[in-house]
Structure formats: C-alpha cells, structure tokens
Prior knowledge:
The termini are far apart. Strands 2-1-9-5-6-10 form a 6-stranded mixed beta sheet, with helices on one face. The protein has a 4-stranded antiparallel beta sheet with strand order 3-4-7-8. The longest helix is centred in the N-terminal third of the chain and has 11 residues, at about 45-55. The protein is α+β, with helices and mostly antiparallel strands and about 160 residues long. The relative contact order is 0.21. It is globular, with a radius of gyration of 16 Å. The protein has one domain (about 5-155). Helices cover about 15% and strands about 30% of the residues. Molybdenum atom binds near residues 114 and 115. InterPro entries: OxRdtase_Mopterin-bd_sf.
Amino acid sequence: MKIAVYDEKIGSERLTADELAAIGPLHLSAAERVEGVSGRAVDFLQWYAAWRSRHGAEGQPMPKRLGVRAADEFEASVPWAQLERALLLYRQEDGQPLKKGYPLRLYVPDGSSDCLNVKSVVQIRFLYEGDPQEGADYGFRNQISPDQLRKREAK
Ligand SMILES: Nc1nc2c(c(=O)[nH]1)N[C@H]1C(S)=C(S)[C@@H](COP(=O)(O)O)O[C@H]1N2
Ligand SMILES: [Mo]
C-alpha cells in the first residue's frame, strides 16, 4: 500500500511505508518515546527535513501544520509545534509489517491528545494555512451532516 505525500509548494509522491521510512535519518524504537508502544519508527521532524532536501526545497517556508488522513478516513491536523518528538511507526519490532495501524502510524508524544496517533496513514500533507495558535484537530471529516446533505439535494 502506498502513502501519498503532498506539498502544494514542493511537490508530491507516493511511497510505501518502507520507502518513506528509508528517507529518514533517525531510526529508533517507538518504545523510546511512547510508553507501551513497540516497533520500528523514524523521527518525524528529521524525516521531514530530509524529504525537503530530497526535493531541493530547503529555502521554502516551513509548514504550519501536518495533516494526515487514514484508510478509514479518520483525519488529524497537528500544529507544527506539537511535532517535536513525533514518530512514524512503519514496522513491528520483529520486522514484520504493522499488524495494527498498517501501513504507517503517526505518534505525537507531545500532542494535545492521544487521538492524534493516527493509524493506517495513507496521506500526509504539509499545510501552510491556518493560525499557528490554533490547536490540533481530529475526527472523521468525511461524514456528511444533515445540513450538507440538504444543500446537496437542493442543487
Ligand atoms: N485510522 C484511525 N486512527 C485512529 C483512530 C481511528 O478511528 N482511526 N482513532 C484515534 C483515537 S480517537 C485514539 S484515542 C487512538 C487509539 O489508539 P489505540 O487503538 O492504539 O488505543 O487512535 C487514534 N487513531
Ligand atoms: Mo481518542
């Protein structure tokens, strides 16, 4: 399964979890940062710096938020300041693909909520819009409210 990495300024690509993880210079065991969690992970901020230079984009402005979307359409949007110790978990400790959260899981140890630890990430987006003071956000965004449905029907 491929993961789409999108950046409106820098470009986009689709990578497997292993291809994506291989870009990151700092590999660690998730247990080093998240209690009760094991598996092979890469440090997110160092991964991002390597991804930028891979696209020749060192001089571009930094994103304000990280947006991730999961296979089940769960989504999270995390202010950059909460990503200090964030991880991308890509394999189990035994080297097998993730049994839970396949193909990739985000962990945000400094995040405002455990709900930001998005399982089964299939899309990663770097966001430049938004108030940096605004908090993290998560949930199933695809759900259509009765109000939206009425508007659709009216079209
Ligand atoms: N893809 C996906 N990731 C998700 C969720 C979800 O519904 N779908 N729930 C979130 C919420 S609300 C919590 S509290 C944690 C729960 O993680 P756990 O299953 O490891 O306990 O996963 C988060 N990641
Ligand atoms: Mo949650």
